[in-house]
Amino acid sequence: MQVSAKVDYGVRALLFLAEAHLADSEKLVKGEAIATAQSIPLKFLEGILTELRHAGFILSQRGAVGGYRLSRSAAKISLAEVIRVLDGPLAAVRGLRPENVSYDGSAEHLQDVWVGIRVALRSILENVTLADVVAGKFGTELSELLTQPDAWVSRPAYEAN
Question: Is the dihedral of CA 79, 76, 43, 23 positive or negative?
């Protein structure tokens, strides 16, 4: 899975707001504060915050005392929701949903793999909320995946035999 800068920045901004929301659910946070704290380019962040506001994740207020805050509890916002709003479907094949592609011959069953990948992504991303990430506490499925021996080992794009 490739996570775009837009999704990465958007989730990080929401996590910053989630942490502020835990301390004071009415507290407004300036976009500049989010950008500085998370090392996100302000102009790019402003566009992302606008999308998140239109999607109903955050509320904003203009003016000297203005800023942003979550529109609902961080425990009620899943990572899957955020990714879909900012980037579209969790899994796509050449821009199409996995159920809308088909193959012939030796690749006939490749669609099954793409659908399976989407199911796996959903099973994690729909069950991890902003509150979970802020707390660093995840459900059994993700926790077990993180403890697998090769979980933190990257593999090169190509391995010679």
Answer: negative
Helix (H/G/I), strand (E/B), else coil: 122: helix
How far is it, in rounded angstroms, from Cα 2 to Cα 4? 6
Please tell me which residue, 5 or 22, carries the higher pLDDT value. 5
Count Cα neighbours of 52 within 13 Å in the Cβ-side half-sphere. 30
d(CA 47, CA 78) in angstroms, rounded, equals 21
- Sequence length of the chain is 161
**Which residues lie below 8 Å from residue 141, measured CB to CB, with a gap of 6+?**
123, 124, 127
Average pLDDT for residues 38-44, to the nearest whole number?
97
0.85 exceeded by pTM: yes
Give the model confidence (pLDDT) of 92-137 as tens digits. Answer: 999 889 999 999 999 999 999 999 999 999 999 999 999 999 999 9
Q: Which of 2, 31, 12, 4 is nearest to 133 (CA)?
A: 12
Distances (CA, A) of 37 to 29, 30, 61, 81, 93: 11, 11, 20, 23, 35
* pLDDT in the model for residue 63: 87
